[in-house]
Amino acid sequence: MTFHFMRPARSELVLDELRTQNRHLSDADRERKYRKMERTPYRFFRGTNHLFWRDVWQDWRIYMFGGLRDTQTWLQGDAHVYNHGAYGDDRQGVHYGMDDFDDAVIGDYQYDLWRHAASMVLDAEENAGLSAGQARRAIRHLLGVYLDTLAAYTAGTGPEDIHVTYINKPLGPFMRKVLAKRGPKRYLAKWTVVEDGERRFNLDTKKMGAVSAAERSQLLKALREQYPETLRNGGRELSPAHLRVKDVARRLNAGTGSLGLSRYYALISGASDRLEDDLILDIKQQTPPPAYRVMNAREKRLWRRSFAHEAQRHALAFQALANHPDEYIGWLTLDDTVYSVRERSPYKKDFPTHKVRDFKQYRRLARQWGRIMAREHLQGAEALRPDDPAYFSRAVLDRCDTRRESFKQMIVDLAFTYADCVRRDHAVFVAERAAESG
Predict the structure, then answer these.
(1) Where in the chain are the domains?
(2) What are the beta bridge partners of residue 337?
(3) What is the pLDDT of residue 168?
(4) For the whole model, what pTM was predicted?
C-alpha cells in the first residue's frame, strides 16, 4: 500500500528547494553557484540560507528564551562566520564586523545566534581544524559575551561604547595587513584603468562586463535623478559634482547566495576632481530575504505595509545595524526592479579562519563575534523603538539571565544538530550532481 499523504523525504525536500530557489538563474550562473556549494558543507550552508529559514522559522525552541514582541529586533538575517570582515573607508576609518545586510529581517534575536552558532561548528571543523569540544567552548564564549554585552547596555553602556579590539592575535595582524595592503589606490587599480586623463572601469577582468547603451542611459538617469533623493537628508551633504558618474559597468560572478542577481558598479568623482578621490558605488538588485518566504499571509501583509520595497528595507536595516553606515546608502529603480546603492569599501576583506593557529585565537574571535552581534541587535532595537531602546535587552535578560547555562546548552545542541543536518544535505546535493553528470 502506498501512502500518498506522507511528507517527502528530507532528500526530496532539499533538492526541490534548491530547484525552486535557483530556477531564475541562467544555466551558467546556476552551474557556477552549484560548483561553489559542492566544495564543502560550509559552502553549501552559505548558499542555502533559504533552507535554514525554512527549517527554523517558528521552531518551538524559540519560545524557551524569546518568542516575545520585545525579543524582536533587526537581524542580520544571514549570520555566519564569513560575514564578518574588514570594511570602511578613509573618512570613517576601517573596522571589523558585519557589513552585509541583504537578508536583514525583523525577528527574534535567537535566529541570528542559531545560524551563527551552526556556522561555527562547520567552520571550526573545515577551516580552523578545531575539535568538536573546542567548537562547543567557542560557541559558549560567544553566547556569554553576547549576554554580558546586553547586561552592560541595561546598566548604562551605549552601543557606541561597545568596541571590537584589534590589538591581540588574530585580529590585530589581520587588520594591520588590511590597512597595509588595501585602500583606495589599490582597489581603483584593481577595478579601473586611466586613459587620456579619465578613469573608467577595466572590462578586461572576468568580474566586469559592459552595459548596453540603453542600460547606460537608464543607469545614469537613475543615479542623477532618483538616487540622491534616497540619501539621508535628501543628499544635501553630497554635491552633484561629488556624485557625478564617470562610468558604469556590470558586476559579474559575485557572491554565492546572491549569484545571479543583477548588479552594477558606478564610478563617481567623490570629494574632488582628482582621480585618486574617485570611488565605486555598488548597485545590487534587492529581493525579499529568505525569512519572508516562510512567513504566513498575515506576517507578509505586515511586512509589505512596513516597507515600500526591498531596497528601502535594506537601507533601513543597514542604517539600524551597521556600526558605521556609509553615507552613500540609498536605492534606485530600473524597469520596476529595485536596487540598493552603497559604497564598495576599499578595505573589504573576509577574515581567513583557516589561518587561525589555535583554539585560543578562535576563542578570541568568538568573543568579538558575540560583542558584534549584541551591538547590532541593540542598535536594531533602538531603531525600532527609539522611545524605549532598552526594551530589548531587558526582555532578553529577563528570559535568559538566570538560566544562562540552559540557554547556552540549547544553542550548542541545536548548532551541532543542524550542522550534522547540513552535512547530510550537502551529501545529497553532491550525489545528485554526480548522478546528473554521469
Answers:
(1) 10-179+355-437, 187-343
(2) 334
(3) 83
(4) 0.94
